[in-house]
Amino acid sequence: MRIMPGADPFLLKGGSNGVLLIHGFTGTPAEMRLLGESLHQRGFTVLAIRLPGHGTCVEDMESTTWRHWYGAAVDGFTLLGGLCPRVNVVGLSMGGLLSLKLAAEYSVDRVAALSTPIFLTAKRLPLLPLYRAFHRFIPKKRRDYDIDPQYYVGYDCTPLDCLSSLLELIRSVQSDLPLVQSPTLLIHSRHEHTVRPESASYILDHLGTSDKELFWLKKSGHVITIDIERQIVFDKVAEFLDHPLTKE
Question: What is the CATH number of the domain that holds 93?
Protein backbone atom coordinates (compact mmCIF):
# COMPACT_ATOMS: atom_id res chain seq x y z
CA MET A 1 0.00 0.00 0.00
CA ARG A 2 1.52 3.30 -1.10
CA ILE A 3 0.82 6.31 1.10
CA MET A 4 0.56 9.72 -0.58
CA PRO A 5 3.53 12.02 0.16
CA GLY A 6 2.76 13.97 3.33
CA ALA A 7 -0.15 11.74 4.34
CA ASP A 8 1.66 9.78 7.04
CA PRO A 9 0.44 9.88 10.63
CA PHE A 10 2.78 11.61 13.05
CA LEU A 11 3.67 11.62 16.74
CA LEU A 12 5.33 14.64 18.38
CA LYS A 13 6.36 13.81 21.94
CA GLY A 14 6.05 16.55 24.51
CA GLY A 15 4.55 16.80 27.98
CA SER A 16 1.87 14.85 29.82
CA ASN A 17 -1.02 16.69 28.16
CA GLY A 18 -1.84 14.75 24.99
CA VAL A 19 -3.76 15.84 21.91
CA LEU A 20 -5.24 13.45 19.36
CA LEU A 21 -5.69 15.11 15.95
CA ILE A 22 -8.23 13.68 13.49
CA HIS A 23 -8.32 14.89 9.88
CA GLY A 24 -11.34 15.31 7.66
CA PHE A 25 -13.28 13.33 5.04
CA THR A 26 -11.02 12.45 2.06
CA GLY A 27 -8.22 14.41 3.78
CA THR A 28 -5.00 13.35 5.50
CA PRO A 29 -2.89 14.23 8.56
CA ALA A 30 -1.15 16.83 6.37
CA GLU A 31 -4.00 19.27 7.01
CA MET A 32 -3.39 18.88 10.76
CA ARG A 33 0.42 19.15 10.58
CA LEU A 34 0.76 22.90 11.26
CA LEU A 35 -1.73 22.75 14.13
CA GLY A 36 0.13 19.77 15.56
CA GLU A 37 3.49 21.51 15.35
CA SER A 38 2.05 24.62 16.99
CA LEU A 39 0.64 22.57 19.88
CA HIS A 40 3.90 20.65 20.25
CA GLN A 41 5.84 23.91 20.51
CA ARG A 42 3.60 24.77 23.46
CA GLY A 43 4.46 21.52 25.25
CA PHE A 44 1.71 19.12 24.19
CA THR A 45 2.28 15.56 23.05
CA VAL A 46 0.54 15.30 19.68
CA LEU A 47 -0.67 12.24 17.77
CA ALA A 48 -2.23 12.72 14.33
CA ILE A 49 -3.80 9.58 12.91
CA ARG A 50 -4.51 8.61 9.30
CA LEU A 51 -8.03 7.26 8.94
CA PRO A 52 -8.61 3.96 7.07
CA GLY A 53 -8.93 4.39 3.31
CA HIS A 54 -7.39 7.85 3.40
CA GLY A 55 -4.07 9.02 2.01
CA THR A 56 -3.53 6.10 -0.38
CA CYS A 57 -5.92 5.86 -3.34
CA VAL A 58 -9.58 6.70 -3.49
CA GLU A 59 -10.47 3.09 -4.32
CA ASP A 60 -9.15 2.12 -0.88
CA MET A 61 -11.51 4.58 0.75
CA GLU A 62 -14.44 3.14 -1.18
CA SER A 63 -14.27 -0.06 0.88
CA THR A 64 -14.46 1.74 4.25
CA THR A 65 -17.31 3.09 6.35
CA TRP A 66 -17.64 5.44 9.30
CA ARG A 67 -17.24 2.50 11.66
CA HIS A 68 -13.75 1.89 10.29
CA TRP A 69 -12.89 5.57 10.72
CA TYR A 70 -14.27 5.65 14.24
CA GLY A 71 -12.44 2.44 15.14
CA ALA A 72 -9.18 4.11 14.13
CA ALA A 73 -10.04 7.12 16.28
CA VAL A 74 -10.65 4.84 19.27
CA ASP A 75 -7.32 3.10 18.62
CA GLY A 76 -5.53 6.44 18.46
CA PHE A 77 -7.19 7.61 21.66
CA THR A 78 -6.16 4.40 23.42
CA LEU A 79 -2.59 4.64 22.14
CA LEU A 80 -2.21 8.24 23.27
CA GLY A 81 -3.77 7.36 26.62
CA GLY A 82 -0.89 4.96 27.16
CA LEU A 83 1.54 7.86 26.74
CA CYS A 84 -0.28 10.70 28.48
CA PRO A 85 -2.49 10.88 31.59
CA ARG A 86 -4.58 13.57 29.88
CA VAL A 87 -5.98 13.09 26.40
CA ASN A 88 -7.76 15.84 24.46
CA VAL A 89 -9.21 15.36 20.99
CA VAL A 90 -9.25 17.88 18.14
CA GLY A 91 -10.98 17.04 14.88
CA LEU A 92 -11.50 18.82 11.58
CA SER A 93 -14.74 18.39 9.63
CA MET A 94 -15.57 14.66 9.78
CA GLY A 95 -12.76 14.46 12.32
CA GLY A 96 -14.85 16.79 14.45
CA LEU A 97 -17.72 14.31 14.30
CA LEU A 98 -15.39 11.50 15.38
CA SER A 99 -14.03 13.70 18.17
CA LEU A 100 -17.51 14.37 19.53
CA LYS A 101 -18.40 10.68 19.33
CA LEU A 102 -15.24 9.84 21.29
CA ALA A 103 -16.20 12.41 23.92
CA ALA A 104 -19.67 10.87 24.18
CA GLU A 105 -18.30 7.36 24.75
CA TYR A 106 -14.90 7.84 26.44
CA SER A 107 -13.27 9.98 29.11
CA VAL A 108 -11.92 12.76 26.89
CA ASP A 109 -10.45 15.66 28.84
CA ARG A 110 -11.38 18.37 26.33
CA VAL A 111 -12.67 18.30 22.77
CA ALA A 112 -12.34 20.84 19.96
CA ALA A 113 -14.47 20.32 16.85
CA LEU A 114 -13.52 22.44 13.83
CA SER A 115 -15.76 23.01 10.79
CA THR A 116 -17.90 20.09 11.92
CA PRO A 117 -20.83 19.10 9.67
CA ILE A 118 -24.42 18.56 10.60
CA PHE A 119 -25.92 20.31 7.58
CA LEU A 120 -24.04 20.24 4.26
CA THR A 121 -24.25 22.88 1.54
CA ALA A 122 -24.54 20.36 -1.32
CA LYS A 123 -27.97 20.88 -2.86
CA ARG A 124 -28.01 17.51 -4.62
CA LEU A 125 -27.72 15.32 -1.53
CA PRO A 126 -31.35 14.14 -1.84
CA LEU A 127 -30.32 12.66 -5.21
CA LEU A 128 -27.47 10.66 -3.69
CA PRO A 129 -29.23 7.26 -3.99
CA LEU A 130 -29.80 7.93 -7.69
CA TYR A 131 -26.21 9.08 -8.25
CA ARG A 132 -24.90 5.97 -6.51
CA ALA A 133 -26.79 3.79 -8.98
CA PHE A 134 -24.74 5.20 -11.87
CA HIS A 135 -21.52 6.61 -10.41
CA ARG A 136 -18.87 5.47 -7.94
CA PHE A 137 -17.13 8.82 -7.53
CA ILE A 138 -17.81 12.52 -7.93
CA PRO A 139 -15.09 15.15 -8.47
CA LYS A 140 -14.32 17.58 -5.65
CA LYS A 141 -13.99 21.33 -5.97
CA ARG A 142 -10.61 21.98 -4.39
CA ARG A 143 -10.01 25.46 -3.06
CA ASP A 144 -6.65 27.16 -3.59
CA TYR A 145 -4.92 27.97 -0.31
CA ASP A 146 -2.05 30.40 0.13
CA ILE A 147 0.09 27.70 1.69
CA ASP A 148 2.66 25.09 0.72
CA PRO A 149 0.86 22.21 -1.09
CA GLN A 150 2.45 19.72 1.32
CA TYR A 151 -0.19 20.74 3.86
CA TYR A 152 -3.13 20.09 1.55
CA VAL A 153 -2.92 16.43 0.62
CA GLY A 154 -6.05 14.45 -0.17
CA TYR A 155 -8.29 12.99 -2.84
CA ASP A 156 -9.64 14.91 -5.82
CA CYS A 157 -12.89 12.96 -5.82
CA THR A 158 -15.33 11.50 -3.32
CA PRO A 159 -16.58 7.89 -3.20
CA LEU A 160 -20.36 8.11 -3.15
CA ASP A 161 -20.70 5.07 -0.90
CA CYS A 162 -18.49 6.83 1.65
CA LEU A 163 -20.53 10.02 1.38
CA SER A 164 -23.58 7.97 2.30
CA SER A 165 -21.67 6.58 5.28
CA LEU A 166 -20.70 10.10 6.33
CA LEU A 167 -24.39 11.00 6.47
CA GLU A 168 -24.95 7.98 8.71
CA LEU A 169 -22.16 9.21 10.99
CA ILE A 170 -23.78 12.63 11.21
CA ARG A 171 -27.05 11.06 12.34
CA SER A 172 -25.22 8.93 14.90
CA VAL A 173 -23.39 11.93 16.34
CA GLN A 174 -26.59 13.96 16.49
CA SER A 175 -27.99 11.39 18.92
CA ASP A 176 -24.69 11.35 20.85
CA LEU A 177 -24.41 15.10 21.48
CA PRO A 178 -26.38 15.13 24.77
CA LEU A 179 -23.90 12.55 26.11
CA VAL A 180 -20.90 14.83 25.61
CA GLN A 181 -19.89 16.13 29.04
CA SER A 182 -16.32 17.17 28.20
CA PRO A 183 -15.62 20.90 27.84
CA THR A 184 -16.06 21.63 24.15
CA LEU A 185 -14.75 24.27 21.77
CA LEU A 186 -16.38 24.73 18.37
CA ILE A 187 -14.71 26.81 15.66
CA HIS A 188 -16.48 27.55 12.39
CA SER A 189 -16.25 30.08 9.59
CA ARG A 190 -19.22 32.22 8.65
CA HIS A 191 -18.10 31.93 5.01
CA GLU A 192 -17.91 28.14 4.97
CA HIS A 193 -18.29 26.61 1.50
CA THR A 194 -18.87 22.95 2.42
CA VAL A 195 -20.73 22.86 5.73
CA ARG A 196 -23.59 25.19 6.52
CA PRO A 197 -22.61 27.45 9.44
CA GLU A 198 -25.78 26.63 11.35
CA SER A 199 -24.19 23.23 11.94
CA ALA A 200 -22.05 24.81 14.66
CA SER A 201 -25.04 26.42 16.35
CA TYR A 202 -26.91 23.11 16.27
CA ILE A 203 -24.01 21.29 17.92
CA LEU A 204 -23.65 24.01 20.56
CA ASP A 205 -27.34 23.84 21.44
CA HIS A 206 -27.41 20.04 21.76
CA LEU A 207 -24.21 19.33 23.70
CA GLY A 208 -24.68 17.82 27.15
CA THR A 209 -21.95 19.93 28.71
CA SER A 210 -22.55 23.47 29.92
CA ASP A 211 -18.83 24.22 29.46
CA LYS A 212 -18.91 25.02 25.76
CA GLU A 213 -17.94 27.79 23.39
CA LEU A 214 -18.52 28.62 19.73
CA PHE A 215 -15.89 30.82 18.07
CA TRP A 216 -16.61 32.28 14.65
CA LEU A 217 -14.03 33.00 11.95
CA LYS A 218 -14.69 35.72 9.39
CA LYS A 219 -12.42 35.05 6.41
CA SER A 220 -11.81 31.30 6.17
CA GLY A 221 -13.35 28.50 4.15
CA HIS A 222 -13.76 24.91 5.26
CA VAL A 223 -10.23 23.68 5.98
CA ILE A 224 -9.51 26.26 8.67
CA THR A 225 -6.28 24.61 9.81
CA ILE A 226 -4.53 25.76 6.61
CA ASP A 227 -6.56 28.84 5.69
CA ILE A 228 -5.83 32.53 6.18
CA GLU A 229 -6.94 32.57 9.84
CA ARG A 230 -5.07 29.42 10.82
CA GLN A 231 -2.94 31.18 13.44
CA ILE A 232 -6.11 32.33 15.18
CA VAL A 233 -7.28 28.71 15.17
CA PHE A 234 -3.95 27.47 16.56
CA ASP A 235 -3.95 30.05 19.36
CA LYS A 236 -7.59 29.48 20.25
CA VAL A 237 -7.21 25.69 20.41
CA ALA A 238 -4.01 25.90 22.47
CA GLU A 239 -5.57 28.35 24.92
CA PHE A 240 -8.58 26.06 25.31
CA LEU A 241 -6.51 22.91 25.85
CA ASP A 242 -3.92 24.49 28.16
CA HIS A 243 -6.20 24.27 31.15
CA PRO A 244 -6.12 22.64 34.60
CA LEU A 245 -7.12 18.98 34.64
CA THR A 246 -10.80 18.70 33.79
CA LYS A 247 -11.40 15.19 35.10
CA GLU A 248 -9.89 13.70 38.23
Answer: 3.40.50.1820
